[in-house]
């Protein structure tokens, strides 16, 4: 394709993205109402609240959990403070049920639960595995950790927790021209069939550029580009996922969750500490709101979920996680290079995500 054609296409895409945003704003009240209705089924929004110290936290000790990757094991790799382990989420208008791992294992007896997405899925999958393991420390488990599919099986209960790694949900295909990110192709979905619970997540990799970008071209239909607006790409890819869900998921057999956008804390200006990032942070922000507001990717998630027909429960963890600038590994992440203000220590914040998922399951 000629350079001019590509420029025109890029401009068209930007223009359609602006139009899309305007429509999203205009439709905002209705769409948001629908989503809120879904998550307030029991008369309470679990995701509005604040962090409080709870002496009974954390829910497990990382040294007793056989499933934690080094990059999340902050205590083992020398994190000196421990107050961050003690915070518990308190919704404003109801109390959050305490996590009961034995009850959840019984409910899930004979079932297969699969997390699908990037390393934030890995983070939440390892957290849930540790939470369940701490409830039944003496039961037999088998643990398989691979790049594509990993699993933890609680044999006595017949519960299988799977992790399928696919950072974009849609496919990357090797072709003669190079690696092509196909926004309209989701062949990987074949591996997600037959599950009793599916928990999806995607976003962080849509922002990757340069060496950490695992594709050379981005393609939708027959239009192949070198690059495009990343929010538009995310919207298109997530719409492909939503169509896949509507065609392949039977809601009477499979419970569906979407793990909301997990925030990062690289830019202290977002919370009025312009010279800082997550390094050295030992306390959450007080209150219930994040100074910088929600990241734009949350609009994309809300817009796609408002159109999907199969009920998908949004774990709306963005704001409560934004408050936890203290909960990242920073430098205490094993061999992991650099400062990690993107993932979360275990035990830690993802335990609350799982506690919220458990509360949602109880309310269904
Ligand atoms: C976790 O267990 C180890 C080994 O028993 C212990 O030294 C450590 O203090 C415990 N950590 C916490 C946070 O309780
Ligand atoms: C991608 O293709 C679909 C189906 O043809 C179309 O509806 C959508 O607008 C396209 N998106 C972009 C960003 O090109």
Automatic annotation (TrEMBL):
Organism encoding this protein: Cucurbita maxima
Protein's name according to its UniProt entry: Protein trichome birefringence-like 37
Alphabetic keyword roster: Membrane, Signal, Signal-anchor, Transmembrane, Transmembrane helix
Compartment(s): Membrane
Keyword hit for DNA-binding: no
Main location: membrane
One GO cellular component term noted in the UniProt record for this chain: membrane
Segments forming domain Trichome birefringence-like N-terminal: 43-95
Family: Belongs to the PC-esterase family. TBL subfamily.
Membrane topology of this protein: Single-pass membrane protein
Span of the signal peptide: 1-26
Entry GO MF terms: O-acetyltransferase activity
Gene: LOC111490139
Domain Trichome birefringence-like C-terminal: 96-359
């Amino acid at each position: 394709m000629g350079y001019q054609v590509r420029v025109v296409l890029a401009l068209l895409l930007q223009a359609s993205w602006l139009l899309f945003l305007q429509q999203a704003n205009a439709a905002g009240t209705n769409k948001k109402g629908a989503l809120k209705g879904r998550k307030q089924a029991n008369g309470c929004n679990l995701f509005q609240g604040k962090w409080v110290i709870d002496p009974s936290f954390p829910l497990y000790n990382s040294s007793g959990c056989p499933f934690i990757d080094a990059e999340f094991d902050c205590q083992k790799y020398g994190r000196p403070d421990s107050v961050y382990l003690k915070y518990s989420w308190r919704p404003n208008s109801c109390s959050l049920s305490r996590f009961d791992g034995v009850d959840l294992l019984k409910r899930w007896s004979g079932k297969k639960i699969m997390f699908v997405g990037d390393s934030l899925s890995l983070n939440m999958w390892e957290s849930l595995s540790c939470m369940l393991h701490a409830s039944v420390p003496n039961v037999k488990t088998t643990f398989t950790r691979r790049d594509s599919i990993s699993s933890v099986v609680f044999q006595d209960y017949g519960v299988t927790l799977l992790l399928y790694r696919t950072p974009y949900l849609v496919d990357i295909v090797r072709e003669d021209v190079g690696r092509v990110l196909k926004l309209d192709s989701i062949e990987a979905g074949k591996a997600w069939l037959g599950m009793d619970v599916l928990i999806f997540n995607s976003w962080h990799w849509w922002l990757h550029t340069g060496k950490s970008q695992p594709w050379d071209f981005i393609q939708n239909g027959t239009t192949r580009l070198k690059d495009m607006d990343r929010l538009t790409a995310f919207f298109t890819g997530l719409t492909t996922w939503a169509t896949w869900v509507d065609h392949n998921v039977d809601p009477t057999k499979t419970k569906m969750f979407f793990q909301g956008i997990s925030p990062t804390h690289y830019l202290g200006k977002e919370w009025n500490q312009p010279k800082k990032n997550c390094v050295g942070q030992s306390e959450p922000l007080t209150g219930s709101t994040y100074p910088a507001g929600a990241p734009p990717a949350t609009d994309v998630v809300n817009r796609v979920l408002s159109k999907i027909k199969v009920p998908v429960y949004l774990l709306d963890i963005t704001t409560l996680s934004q408050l936890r600038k203290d909960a990242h590994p920073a430098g205490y992440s094993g061999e992991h290079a650099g400062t990690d203000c993107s993932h979360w220590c275990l035990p830690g914040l993802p335990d609350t995500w799982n506690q919220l998922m458990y509360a949602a399951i109880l309310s269904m």
